[in-house]
Design brief:
By secondary structure, this protein is of the alpha/beta class. It has 13 helices and 8 strands.
């Protein structure tokens, strides 16, 4: 089995001022929408089981952020949080997506929620998985090392250390070889890994960071989404987005049903695939 057999969906494209964004758009156009937003260093491959499971009942849209997956990888673009959110908002407007269930993971949290806050009436439900949308109390050492001058780019872009580490450090049960190959496929060269490095560098840790204010604005906007129903699907053995983040989402978005998985890591859709899909199926069967 190859990774391509796990991801048999035709890629579409959307032009932005900085380059072409690839995205999946599966299912009936008139159906309720599942909008799936990935993080770093993944791509829409993360959502392949969601697409396969729900494309008969829903319109499932999953983009690759600029620099990620099958999208263009411009070397000189900003790769800032605000600009990723703007790209997503452009795509939502271009497709005129409404009755949206927004699914987010990792960097997809602040990007997806930031875009949603621009037009919140489009969003009916939220599904939050191992992410954040507010300043973190600390950054794990293994990520901090990737931000060091010279050493960080050499490791992340030269040796693909960040993406390779993600294939075994983000799960409890491990990834089958074709799945790991699928995650790595778009990041085969120094140029291909530009967004992987830029995402690491864009983590805002103090008020002097260019994305700090953007993150605070997203945090301040969360009460505008606090009446949305939905889910928190959380891998409890995530060493980056720890249960502290889950508890913060439970407090800030109280209408979401929280479902922690004690035996799952950061890639909760890999470690707890069947159970997570079942919880999602139950949530979507309940009127928003």
């Amino acid at each position: 089995m190859s990774w391509r057999s796990l991801y048999p969906f035709p890629s579409r494209s959307f032009e932005t001022p900085a380059g072409r964004i690839a995205y999946l758009d599966e299912g009936p156009r008139e159906a309720p929408v599942l909008l799936c937003v990935h993080g770093n260093p993944t791509w829409s491959f993360l959502w392949r089981d969601v697409v396969a499971e729900f494309r008969r009942s829903h319109r499932v849209v999953a983009l690759d952020h600029l620099g990620c997956g099958l999208s263009d990888k411009p070397q000189g673009w900003s790769y800032r949080l605000a600009d990723h959110a703007s790209n997503l908002a452009r795509l939502v407007a271009h497709l005129d997506l409404r009755r949206v269930t927004l699914l987010v993971h990792d960097w997809g949290g602040p990007i997806g929620l930031g875009a949603a806050l621009r037009e919140p009436d489009r969003v009916e439900r939220l599904v939050v998985t191992n992410t954040g949308a507010f300043p973190a109390p600390a950054i794990p050492l293994r990520i901090a090392v990737c931000r060091l001058p010279l050493l960080g780019p050499l490791a992340v872009r030269g040796f693909n250390a960040f993406s390779r580490a993600a294939t075994f450090m983000t799960t409890v049960h491990g990834l089958p070889r074709p799945v790991a190959e699928g995650y790595l496929y778009p990041y085969r060269s120094w140029a291909d890994r530009v967004a992987v490095q830029r995402f690491v560098e864009d983590i805002p840790l103090d008020p002097g960071h260019p994305s700090w204010q953007t993150l605070l604005e997203i945090e301040a906007g969360l009460p505008r989404l606090a009446d949305r129903p939905g889910l928190i699907l959380w891998g409890e053995r995530d060493w980056c987005f720890t249960p502290w983040f889950r508890r913060e989402f439970e407090r800030r978005l109280p209408k979401l049903r929280s479902v922690p998985f004690a035996d799952a890591g950061h890639l909760v859709l890999e470690d707890a695939r069947g159970r997570a899909l079942e919880r999602l199926r139950e949530a979507l069967a309940t009127p928003a």
